[in-house]
Design goal:
Layout lengths: L4 H18 L15 E5 L2 E7 L6 E2 L2 H10 L4 E7 L3 H14 L3
Parallel strand pairs: 3-4
Antiparallel strand pairs: 1-2, 2-4
Length: about 100
């Protein structure tokens, strides 16, 4: 039965990649930062994202920092309010990034 695990994993990875491509969002970036303040709440997790001047760097916690760096944002200041749940904070960060307008 061990030989059945390989194909199942590849099928699962392909399915995950297809679903991820359907849910891609575009993030407006102005001078390596976000264009304006934005706040989003998911469950008990509340996230505040603020633009930062050039060279300030990414001032964010672990899960929020990972999402912002993958989005290509190099300068931003963030604040986690409410929950410390990493999954909820990531969902709130993605929701905040979806709210951004140029």
């Amino acid at each position: 039965m061990a030989w059945l695990k390989g194909p199942d994993v590849t099928i699962a990875i392909d399915k995950a990649v297809k679903q991820a491509r359907k849910n891609i969002i575009t993030v407006p970036i102005v001078n390596d930062t976000i264009p304006h303040w934005v706040r989003a709440k998911v469950c008990a997790a509340d996230v505040l994202l603020r633009p930062a001047p050039q060279g300030k760097g990414l001032l964010a916690g672990g899960s929020i920092r990972a999402v912002l760096s993958l989005a290509g944002i190099h300068n931003a200041s963030t604040k986690m309010l409410g929950s410390n749940n990493k999954i909820s904070n990531v969902r709130a960060t993605i929701k905040a990034l979806q709210k951004l307008r140029k």
